[in-house]
Amino acid sequence: MAWAGVWLCMCVGVSVSVHLILGVPPQHRGWLRLWEEGEGCGECERERCPLAPSNCPAGQVQDSCGCCEQCGNVEGQQCDPDGAQLFYGRCGEGLVCQRRTRRGRRGRRRGEPEPKCVCEAQGSVCGSDGRTYPNLCQLREAASRKGTTLRLTGQGPCYSAPRISRAPRDLSNYTGNDIVFGCEVSAFPLPNLSWRKKGSDNFLPGDDPHISVQTPPSLSSSQARGGPQRYTVSTWLQIQNLHLSDAGIYSCISHNALGETSASARLTVLRQGVFTIGFFTPPICLYIRAEGSERPSE
């Protein structure tokens, strides 16, 4: 009888601890769900349900028994697609569980498709904070994590003046070498981009054959491609076979109907030369450099 009493206490302790742990994030509850499958659902007594977290990024959903509330899985999180198993959990508000094929580096399928939560409402949206979100689900998730009242103000991206998200950096190199300045801008409508050297009213590259500019063709008269994210534009300024006269300050200029912005970086060009001192055996070669934008006078 003593052993029976000890075993009963252990079982009760395990059951209580499992229910208390249901407040952990859904991705950590799979094994706990399997542990409790043998118990069955029984009659729903909501007063005995564990307190559901109040800050669920994807809202609350009912548990497998349709009785207690728990956090729903967020976008991109694994889920149970058909309800046949209860391991990963259910998707939250506005999300559906879909199987998506995993692909390797060369585009080949990799094993069985993984079930993940996907937002039903696809397409960018504008939040009341003035930021553009990939979809409505991510806007809701951001509102929950920030603990703020974030509202949908419109479908599609937020209208905004250009903002430099990656400014060009100061560079230093020797004559005869090549350099590349990079610049990335976020805005909607997408902005026009251009480069200019301080002291000149002309936009680059002009008619200089050793300078080239790459920028999306639909946005300016130059050549181009879009940025790594939606509603961003990337541009590059390349100078080949550097001359001392290339030294100076270069500006990335961006504008749309809502405003204009720019960012600048300095290019320092160093003179490179080799002098041989012949009275040593073997001769000694000295490498020297000189800074400047003008050729030294003799």
TrEMBL record:
Pfam family, one: Kazal_2
Name this polypeptide is given: Uncharacterized protein
Signal sequence range: 1-23
Region spans: Disordered: 205-227
Keywords: Disulfide bond, Immunoglobulin domain, Secreted, Signal
GO aspect biological process, one term: regulation of signal transduction
Sequence ranges assigned to domain Kazal-like in this UniProt record: 92-160
GO-annotated cellular components: extracellular space
Compositional bias segments (type: Polar residues): 212-224
Location of the Ig-like domain: 162-268
Subcellular location field: Secreted
GO molecular function per UniProt: insulin-like growth factor binding
PANTHER family: INSULIN-LIKE GROWTH FACTOR BINDING PROTEIN-RELATED, KAZAL TYPE SERINE PEPTIDASE INHIBITOR DOMAIN 1
Domain IGFBP N-terminal: 37-120
Chief subcellular location: secreted
SUPFAM superfamilies, A to Z: Growth factor receptor domain (SSF57184), Immunoglobulin (SSF48726), Kazal-type serine protease inhibitors (SSF100895)
Recorded superkingdom: Eukaryota
